[in-house]
UniProtKB/TrEMBL annotation:
Protein name: Uroporphyrinogen-III C-methyltransferase
GO biological process, one term: siroheme biosynthetic process
Pathway given in the UniProt record: Porphyrin-containing compound metabolism; siroheme biosynthesis; sirohydrochlorin from precorrin-2: step 1/1
Taxonomy of the source species: Bacteria, Bacillati, Actinomycetota, Actinomycetes, Kitasatosporales
Keyword Transferase on entry: yes
The entry's keywords: Cobalamin biosynthesis, Lyase, Methyltransferase, Multifunctional enzyme, NAD, Oxidoreductase, Porphyrin biosynthesis, S-adenosyl-L-methionine, Transferase
InterPro entries: 4pyrrol_Mease (IPR000878), 4pyrrol_Methylase_sf (IPR035996), 4pyrrole_Mease_sub1 (IPR014777), 4pyrrole_Mease_sub2 (IPR014776), CobA/CysG_C (IPR006366), NAD(P)-bd_dom_sf (IPR036291), Siro_Cobalamin_biosynth (IPR050161), Sirohaem_synth (IPR012409)
Active site: 200, 222
Family matches, as PROSITE patterns: SUMT_2
Reactions accelerated catalytically: precorrin-2 + NAD(+) = sirohydrochlorin + NADH + 2 H(+)
Domain Tetrapyrrole methylase: 170-381
Record carries keyword Methyltransferase: yes
């Protein structure tokens, strides 16, 4: 008899009874999607993995702690048969057939009446890849096709234009600390769809090279105005391009709201009536120390970390930082934009009682191929910055966490092949 291909379909399971037999790894992998689909899930199994147990405790599924019994599938619309007992699986399969319940079998795809596709998600669309025939099934190949499609849509190498009208506007995208792999999936997708990208000096600049030729890339660092006009010029550029109906991405280093002036840009856009979405990013304040082997907290060492801007010196009247209080904290201090002023900052902390031998690390150009870590103490840091020629951008970490990881690891970012 000829083997016909499987017929793909999307089940709308909200409120409908789905019976899962077996609480092991298969159930653990499949249950989240069934829960997300709103199914009324009954798990029948004497045991369950801790994750499955947690789903039952959270009320996401009903768990009956017993083996499968005839009649369990009577009210089901759909069944997942995945016990470790082949005999029980065969009996349950027969019951499913008798009640006309579509059923997936983890132990025997041939005996199943339904197959689970490899699924992924992209912008509200489910990508489901299904092997069409039992013969020659290769689940890894199916999953690889799914990954290729989803990844391609995310990074823009597969282009699927929207046929609905795109909403013009601005996305303030946190690009992460510099490694192009450390932007969020959402940020990368918006970047792939942009008509105009206004980029900062910091952040994943390598991604700009991947943009198609029609995308206008504006270097915010080169916008010609005096230092204090620059932000206004950036705001105007965002507004003007958005008013022309374009999709504009403001690509920022780290997270837009961590010393990133993201709220100022959002407010300027709101005043101009331009819709704006904000995409969080991985802040350098945590990721750059991490890439150099420094955890900002560590059990038994630091129970807090404080992120401080060091762009004005402690005795500068514009400073909003209470350095005397910071000197009294036992946790980690993370200083951004502090390379120029670290000498005055270290002196002030010591003057207010922080031990002069407190460890300090400076991590320059973290997560990029040029990452470099230099260690010092509060007593020596000013001199070390001079002699080692430490330059911005750098994150400065002050506290005992600096020494917990031992030797600094190599840069986190893999080097491109020769
Ligand atoms: C204007 S702040 C922006 C911070 C950004 N919004 C964030 O969340 O990471 C710029 C400062 O961030 C730090 N910084 C950003 N990226 C860095 C990197 N890759 N390596 C070291 N420091 C970095 C430096 O202290 C730099 O002076």
């Amino acid at each position: 008899m000829a083997e016909h291909p499987a017929y793909p379909v999307g089940l709308r399971l909200t409120g409908r009874r789905v019976v899962v037999l077996g609480g092991g790894q298969v159930a653990q992998r499949r249950l989240p999607a069934l829960i997300a689909a709103g199914a009324d899930i009954l798990l029948v199994s004497p045991e369950a993995t801790p994750s499955v147990e947690a789903m039952a405790e959270a009320g996401e599924i009903t768990w009956e702690r017993r083996p499968y019994a005839d009649g369990d599938l009577a009210d089901a619309w759909y069944a997942l048969i995945a016990t470790s007992d082949p005999e029980a699986n065969t009996q349950a399969s027969a019951e499913a057939e008798a009640h006309r319940v579509w059923c997936v079998r983890s132990d025997n795809a041939d005996a199943a009446t339904a197959w689970t596709p490899a699924t992924g998600y992209s912008e509200g669309v489910t990508v489901a890849v299904l092997t069409s025939r039992a013969k020659g099934r290769d689940p890894r190949h199916t999953a690889a096709i799914r990954d290729a499609v989803v990844e391609g849509l995310r990074d823009g190498t597969l282009v699927a234009p929207h046929h609905r009208t795109r909403t013009p506007g601005v996305a303030l995208v946190g690009g992460g600390p510099g490694d192009p792999d450390l932007i969020t999936v959402r940020g990368r997708r918006l970047l792939a769809e942009a008509d105009v990208v206004i980029a900062d000096r910091l952040g994943p600049r390598d991604l700009l090279a991947e943009l198609p030729p029609h995308v206008e890339v504006i270097d915010a660092a080169k916008i010609p105005y005096g230092r204090f006009m620059a932000q206004e010029a950036i705001n105007n550029a965002l507004i003007e391009h958005a008013k022309q109906g374009k999709s504009v991405v403001r690509l920022k280093g780290g997270d837009p709201y961590v010393f990133g002036r993201g709220m100022e840009e959002l407010q300027a856009l709101a005043e101009a009536g331009i819709p704006c979405t904000v995409v969080p990013g991985i802040s350098s304040s945590i990721s750059v120390p991490g890439a150099a082997g420094i955890p900002v907290t560590h059990r038994g060492v630091a129970h807090e970390f404080t992120v401080v801007s060091g762009h004005v010196a402690p005795d500068d009247e514009r400073s909003l930082v209470d350095w005397a209080s910071l000197a009294g904290l036992t946790g980690t201090l993370v200083i951004l934009m502090g390379v120029d002023k670290i000498g005055r900052i270290a002196e002030t902390l010591v003057a207010h009682g922080k031990p002069a031998d407190t460890p300090v690390a400076l991590v320059q150009e973290g997560t990029t191929a040029a990452q470099r870590r230099v260690d010092a103490t509060l007593a020596t840091v000013a001199e070390t910055v001079r002699t080692q020629d430490v330059k911005p951008p750098a994150v400065i970490v002050i506290g005992e966490v600096v020494t917990v990881g031992g030797q600094a690891p190599a840069p986190a970012r893999p080097q491109p092949p020769e």
